[in-house]
């Protein structure tokens, strides 16, 4: 996919089945392309990929997806769909932050927050990745947002609210920002939780050329962590995939490209072509 950042979800081996379910759940959704390893989709117009990567990583609520609904009926419909073999984290109810809201893990352990609100509040992006800074990253949300602002040239911070009192006073209750045209929500967790970010939920940066790959790789891995095949972690443990925007095409055109990719940390486009 070319253009904006998009989320990737790691599965043991059922990415296609999971996204077939998601496409049936969300309107304006379609499977764009799929193979044995990767499936590319749009859900409510928002780009996603699913990866069949094996049993190494499992999603947790450190990254969830906030679904902005404008009617209670839509929330009820989605809730019932996700409730099948799912796990309720926060029951559907009236809360201070929304007149109708619930948080649920689906049967794939992917975490969804259903929120009654206005799409205008989130730039008409129905599904918004939400970063929850908890565990070892507790209290680092504000610092992380400042880091992303320094890395991404196309960055707009739209709102930020702090906890007014208590143990979390001064930490981020909720912040919203836009990176490369894609809206995010972030917060410091109100409670102590043992989980934190992992590779099961990653964010993909499709790059125009090698110069752009080099730039993002250097920025994210400085005080972060390198991994294989274009994966890395930023200083706050969030996983990113820094890839050519046409990586699927490059891998199709050169039969040896997959083997070359497996030997790389940072992706070198020339080595995928030759």
Automatic annotation (TrEMBL):
GO terms for biological process: methylation. Residues 5-114, 127-243 form the PhnB-like domain. It comes from the Bacteria. InterPro entries: Glyas_Bleomycin-R_OHBP_Dase, PhnB-like. This is Putative 3-demethylubiquinone-9 3-methyltransferase (Glyoxalase superfamily). It holds the Pfam family 3-dmu-9_3-mt. It comes from Sphingobacterium paludis. GO terms for molecular function: methyltransferase activity. Keywords: Methyltransferase, Transferase, Ubiquinone.
